[in-house]
Amino acid sequence: MITLIQQGILLIGTLIGAITDTKTGYIYDWITYPMIIIGLILSITQGQLTNIIIAGTLFIILLIGYKLGKIGGGDVKLFTAISLLNPYNNPEFIITTIFTASILSMTFYSTYYIIKYLKKGKIKKEKNEIKKAIIYSTIIIGYFAILLNLKMIKIETTIILGIPITLGIIFIAFQNGIKENFFEKKIKLKNAEEDEILSKNNPQKILNLVNGKELVEEKELTILKKHKIKEIIVLRNLPKFGPFIFLGTIIALTHPTLITTLLI
Questions:
Q1: What is d(CA 38, CA 49) in angstroms, rounded to the nearest whole number?
Q2: d(C-alpha 137, C-alpha 128), whole Å
Q3: Phi–psi pair at 234, nearest 5 degrees
Q4: Nearest to 103 by CA among 167, 185, 172
Q5: How many CA atoms lie within 13 A of 166 on its CB side?
Q6: What is the pTM of this model?
Q7: Which of 32, 40, 72, 173 is the 20 to 30 Å CA partner of 51?
Q8: Sign of the CA dihedral with 241 first, then 247, 249, and 252 last
Q9: What is the chain's Cα-based Rg?
Q10: Going along 54-201, which residue ranges are E strands?
Q11: pLDDT given for residue 127 in this prediction
Q12: Contacts of 54 (CB under 8 A, 6+ apart)
């Protein structure tokens, strides 16, 4: 019965999060906090200590990513909630959720924005990014070659992972041009919203004032106002992760041993 309750809350909560993220770009606290509270209560009453440990560890790791501007605050809370509501009380469930959500979103958004960018016909020359993409490719190819040689991964898994990784590397090669064309927006500082992501194309003075931080919080906004900064360039309308968290949750619920199946 408890398992069914956990599964139901997971599906409903992640679905609502997917809808609000798609429409507004936010996964609200009124979605994640009740999930976290219920998940914590159920984990304690059912003696699911593993869920609590995983949730706490994951929250710390993702919080670092949030502070670096790599993941949204709503995503952090939602993954924490999913960990606490894990009906299987094991690490594989949340690993499968994150893994499939990441792979699906990488495949979709890389394909979408690469095609959209190429259609514009104005390709920005990005030698540094291309070099970076080549280095990543070399490291990844070498890594998978070692795993295959040691028989630690299946050839089918290598092929499955190779497609989204390849698309991701191509995205990296053109990421600056993609950001400039689809995500960058110059705004008045007074109109800055909570947790803005600062573009690296801001004047160096602005970047120095925030010590190179990408995530602009209240402290950084106060510093910028103090130095009479009127406008900043931020990243808006970034790819929405919520829908893919929902899909990842469905896959993890229906195929909880997916990671083991792929790797062994």
A1: 15
A2: 14
A3: -120, 165
A4: 167
A5: 8
A6: 0.89
A7: 72
A8: negative
A9: 20
A10: 184-188, 196-198
A11: 75
A12: 83, 86, 91, 94
